[in-house]
Amino acid sequence: MNKPLAGRRILLVEDEMMLVELIESLLYDLGSQSVSTAATVRQGLDLIGRQVFDAAMLDVNLSGETSFAVADALAARGIPFLFSTGYGIDGLTERFRDRPVLRKPFQYEELSDMLESLLA
Prior knowledge:
Layout: E1 9-13, H1 17-29, E2 34-38, H2 41-50, E3 55-59, E4 61-62, E5 65-66, H3 68-76, E6 81-85, E7 101-103, H4 108-119
Parallel strand pairs: 1-2, 1-3, 3-6, 6-7
Antiparallel strand pairs: 4-5
């Protein structure tokens, strides 16, 4: 099986616990060395300040708050990231329209392909 995330450290910012567990499992399946999770912007920013990540996956809407502050912090550090949302590109502000968007619900292969190209 292809392990495109072999040895990679991933930040997952998602507020729905069932999705966190599912995505975390998929990321480990893809070979991730570690997956750190945050359910809020504050938790995400705290993790970015304390750890090094190879890539990140951000839910756009975190209980009514957008993850754009986390995206800004990742961009400032040069860490590649993608957005995960049910709204598609329409859920993004103009400054993030060039970032990859994984539309919910997504398939395992879509997640794998998008992360592989993000880290290429």
